[in-house]
Amino acid sequence: MTTSTPSLSTIAEQRVVLPSVTWQQYKNLLATLGDYPGLRLIYLEGMLEIFMPSPEHELIKR
């Protein structure tokens, strides 16, 4: 007797880290993007991380 495990198709979150970003550049980017749904920006000591959580994460959050 064999059993099969269902496969899960997942889409990973997308992420990029930008070094040497000034506070002013970060504020300009925030003003430009506004409240873009699903987009997360994190700024710390000149590093800017931009990411979009996976669709599964967004579904769980609701």
What does this structure look like?
The protein is of the alpha+beta class and 62 residues long. It contains 2 helices and 3 strands, in the order E-H-E-E-H. The longest helix is centred in the middle third of the chain and has 11 residues, at 23-33. The chain starts with 13 loop residues before the first strand and ends with a helix. This is Uma2 family endonuclease.
Mean pLDDT: 79
| Structure annotation, total helices | 2
Spatial arrangement of strands, main beta sheet: 1-3-2
Euclidean distance between termini CA atoms:
40 Å
Helix and strand element order: EHEEH
| Strand composition percent | 25-35%
Rg, Cα atoms, Å: 17 Å
> Largest sheet at a glance?
3 strands, antiparallel
SSE-based structural type? alpha+beta
- Shape label: flat
Give a quick precis of the structure.
With 62 residues, the protein is an alpha+beta fold.
Key terms:
62 residues, alpha+beta, 3-stranded antiparallel beta sheet, 2 helices, flat, Uma2 family endonuclease
Compile the SSE list and pairings.
Blueprint: E1 14-18, H1 23-33, E2 40-44, E3 47-52, H2 55-61
Antiparallel strand pairs: 1-3, 2-3
